Amino acid sequence: MRTFTALDDLADEPVRGTAVAIGKFDGVHLGHQAILTRLRDIAAAEQLESVVFTFRENPLRLLRPDRCPEPLMSPDQRETALAEAGVDVCLMVPFDERLSSIPAEAFVRDILVGRLGTRHVIVGPDFRFGHRGVGDVALLQRMGEELDYTVEEVSFVVDDDLGRVSSTRVREAIGQGDIELATRMLGRPVAVRGDVVHGDARGRELGFPTANLGGAVEGFVPNDGVYAGWAIVDGVRRMAAISVGSNPTFTPEAQSRVEAYLLDYSGDLYGARITIEFVHRIRGTYTFSGIDALVERMHDDVRETRAMLNGGILRDEC
Ligand SMILES: Cc1cc2nc3c(=O)[nH]c(=O)nc-3n(C[C@H](O)[C@H](O)[C@H](O)COP(=O)(O)O)c2cc1C
Ligand SMILES: Nc1ncnc2c1ncn2[C@@H]1O[C@H](COP(=O)(O)OP(=O)(O)O)[C@@H](O)[C@H]1O
């Protein structure tokens, strides 16, 4: 996949004869994947390049920061998911004053047709575009008759079990601790990524050293609590008991952070970039009366993690 982070870069390396899907694609969930499947099929059938037109940040960050939700993915995670979906070209441009002031008609004429040579446009439900969001599917279609492209609106993915799939519902599911539902709507694990930093060096004394994620953590961090999941280090996936919290037993005022105890592992992870995938929420974060109570509970958490990830078979040892 070729990625462009500025529209002007298209002048140096033109992309012509395209099918274009436009949207935020936050989460690249099953609904987005339905759009990308159509995009790929249409592009393949007509020997066009498949292009995703998306934004680095949610447009609401500029337009209505008070209503802008936390993203489900970092731009890098989104780019990876789009590449995995078989997209040829990703345009991930900043949604800035300049882009937001382009009128809907000019967006179609100058960008979709002028710069991308669009033959087909594929959008999701309720798609709006152009300055003040005045452009809609009807306008896209009207302009397509004149400018010789077609438009397809892919409807919501509504599943008997999952209901309607949307980024908002994925956030809600994670917020309610239903990691399983979020995972099914995403069609991939709920995952965060970050660098392992030093903590308070307490973990190893408790018998549970934990890799603490620091710096800018990519992805949507679930609510405080304890989770069963996986830690992926250098491409190797290991079972992990994960804590998201401020360790209130020790540091009630601290900021919440993500830390993972990797089962059956000992080694040095400082400085490594690791991915943590959440599979199941075990419990909330408690303020224990002392270290012994915390450690006893952590043993249970580890047993439960192993049971969850081994398909529900509890073994005697932990
Ligand atoms: C599985 C697991 C469950 C945890 N549960 C709690 C908890 O309920 N309350 C709490 O205060 N800390 C909890 N912690 C966090 C520990 O307090 C923390 O890992 C320990 O203080 C080590 O911190 P350090 O990495 O900064 O050395 C948990 C950690 C793990 C790995
Ligand atoms: N099983 C393990 N799970 C997580 N980290 C481990 C494990 N074994 C060794 N480590 C190492 O120990 C470090 C965590 O130890 P800890 O005492 O909790 O210190 P800190 O407070 O700096 O996180 C990790 O960053 C990693 O380098």
TrEMBL record:
EC code: 2.7.1.26, 2.7.7.2
Riboflavin kinase domain mapped to chain residues: 185-310
The keyword Nucleotide-binding is annotated on this UniProt entry: yes
Domain of life of the native organism: Bacteria
GO BP term, pick one: riboflavin biosynthetic process
Task performed by this protein: Catalyzes the phosphorylation of riboflavin to FMN followed by the adenylation of FMN to FAD.
Stated family: Belongs to the ribF family.
This protein's name: Riboflavin biosynthesis protein
Species assigned in the record: Leucobacter tardus
Organism lineage: Bacteria, Bacillati, Actinomycetota, Actinomycetes, Micrococcales
